[in-house]
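Lecture notes, unit on protein representations.

Consider one protein chain, 189 amino acids long.
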Amino acid sequence: MSFENHVRLTLDNHTWPAGVEMRWAPPTPQAAPVTSSHVVDQMVSDIAEALDRAENAFFALLSVIGAGEHTLTVTGRLADRPHAARVWLSVDGAGFVSYEASAALGFCVEIGAGFLDDRPGALIARTVSPDGEESVRAWLVDPGSQWLIPRTADQVRDGYRFSMPEDTPDPEPHLIYRAAVDLPFGRVS
């Protein structure tokens, strides 16, 4: 009850209920109300930061991917719905990378979405080297660190065989499962 109500009730000859003291206490300070614009501003800031980190992760990946034809796939779940994106790129022996810019943008958006989700996703790099050898590596899209965490060769193999019955022979015996490498953290040029 505010001071004004206390005075009005007292002056109007009303009495307080038993056990209630008649003294004034200042109101408890309250935090400013959170408005929808504050919420939207924070969401936009979080999204912009995740996209910036996703772009950095993409270019860090390009710096270590090596020569060959690569199919990069990122998968995850957002709002309980699966999402995925794929980009194809070619890296020559001199390190020149070619890819379709719009596909790379969509790929970065999916990595960023994975950074914002509460469950980790996966980034798989399937490579055909210049000598024709086929291999696969993988990174965990980690929302906690908002970075790509390398997986071991065994983790990659287990991921590929996850949905297969236990005694099923490897459908791609020629495929080499490789350990992924740590990606340089920060902006890579």
